[in-house]
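Supplementary Methods S3. Complex input for the FE2/S2 (inorganic) cluster-bound model.
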Amino acid sequence: MPLISFKKNRTPLSVEPGANLMKALLDGGLPVASSCGGDGVCAKCKIQILEGEQNLSPANETEKFLKESKGIPAGQRISCQCEVLGDITVDTTYW
Ligand code: FES
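Predicted complex, serialized as structure tokens:
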């Protein structure tokens, strides 16, 4: 089972392989910024990936478009658009 770990002092979350990152964080009780509810429109759900980016699904067309049009830097992923395939460590500015 993939583990989502955090930079700050939180217990890691164990998730099903292929779990949607945003949903996994919400299910784990963490807030995730959003104004589109995961429809791939707002890009507010961006999450900093500190370790294990290779353990996330590759960016789909929606994520590629959002990252380019909103200027999302490398190292951040649109959490509602990616799946957790292995261990990762994540952070946001508001946790
Ligand atoms: S929640 Fe809006 S793009 Fe992810």
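The CA atoms of residues 31 and 75 lie 20 Å apart. The chain has a mean pLDDT of 96.
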